[in-house]
Amino acid sequence: MTSAVPDASAYVERAGKLYSTAVPQEIDYPVYSVSKENGLVTVTLSNARDQYVKYWAYFKTVDRFVFDKESGEYVVYASEQEEREKRLEENWFG
What we know:
By secondary structure, the chain is mainly beta. It has one domain (about 10-85). It is built from 1 helix and 5 strands. It has a 5-stranded antiparallel beta sheet, with helices on one face. The chain starts with 7 loop residues before the first helix and ends in a 7-residue tail after the last strand. The mean pLDDT is about 85.
């Protein structure tokens, strides 16, 4: 987790709770990275073992939660197998 964002732990907790409501859950060993820019807080969720699984079949997923600090609303983007990121539908997370 990045410490440059004073309230980073609250955003990590929120992203983690949102992720826990998703089906399917493809990230077994979550690693969070937090950044802040222009009133937006971004929490990137990836799998800790991604960098160690180069030579066997493994589904790599990265989810990026972008929270608007002022409104509290969020948007989620996902990329699979290091392909182009796509925006997830609003109902993806419960």
